[in-house]
Task: structure prediction
Amino acid sequence: MMKKSAKFVINHSDKLNGQIDVYGSKNTAMKIIAACILIPGKVRLENIPDILDVQKMILILEKMGGEFVRNGHNLTVDLQNLKPIDPDEDLVRSMRASIVLVGPLISRFGKVKIPHPGGCLIGARPIDLHLKAFRNLGVEIEENQQSCQFNYKSSPQERKVLFSRISVTATENVILFASFQKQKTTISQAAIEPEVIDLINFLKQSGLKINVFGRTIEIDCRQNLKPIKYRIIPDRIEAATFAIMAACTRSNLKINNIIPKHLEALLDKFKLMGIKFDKGKNFLYLKNTPAFKAVNISTAEYPGFPTDIQSPMGVLLTQAEGISRIKENIFENRLGYLSELKKMGAKINILNSNEAIIYGPTALYGAKINSLDLRAGATLIIGGLIAKGRTEIFEAGNIDRGYEKIEERLQKIGAQISRVKI
Result:
């Protein structure tokens, strides 16, 4: 159920302890639910997080005639009787990831109209790559400032897409579109994030012939996809958030249900900083590290340092010894959270919309701050835990988009955090 307006109230909570489980990947869940548009019958998905973005995606498809049954983190999806109507405009506008509905909907029904998707305020994130790719594949598009109308009438003989820059959602959208076509499609300069590969693995198990060669993806001619049972990967961004939280609070914390390989970029930085940890087949154990060194961060497409971890890393760098630099190369407006950290006493020089210098270690103090976006909100929770005094974080709903029952899970490992309705 979608939560009403609320804030988080946090008091200083160092030395968290115990263990915490990582739930299923937000970004994978959204795309695999969209993929079910192409599959006749009931698909059974496991490890689906009960978060706001997933709730919205389900609601969009329910309004179109889809049926869903949730049992804990298991979700049964039946989109056989989906109606060829346009998705709810308000819901689409509220969620950026809804753009991936375009590929499977026009492939199945031949047309769809959607408003320009919304989401976090971390930059313009235009859908130009999506539009160009669909046009290359024979889709006619009429667009204005409010919406886009997609009509699929004919397919070109040569079905090739070459992205001018790497985009996760554009790659996924084309994969979903091509998965229901009668001709082979080749995607070059494709994203290969773990979430993209998980979507591909789901489609392969459903019967699709699809191969990945470096950053080239080849999708064979249409197969008869079949309903399956599938368990999605753990959320690497949630895992990283908990790891950074443990390092900031100087905690001994075991993080379960992870894929260590997906965290290599972060763990390489931890090694440079001197942060102590052990890792196993499916867990990460952070050890209390009283002092650690500054490090520079520059975001990049996978396997580079993830943009979604840049924000939590920013608060960790306020506690590191020395001068750190952050360079954000994916989105042009993702450093807004640094201004909120400055309200808490952090020493930060914001050079421009993409670069900043952080000086540490500095003590943080409780303040009234705004979550701004999903990852910034999680970052400020970490800041609140290490700050002296009381912190209030408004717009809790931004955090609910990607972290399920975050306050309840953190309370179990010793965090003084509560949700207050406003």
Q: What stands out?
A: The chain has two domains: 6-23+234-421, 26-231. Residues 236-248 form the longest helix (13 residues).
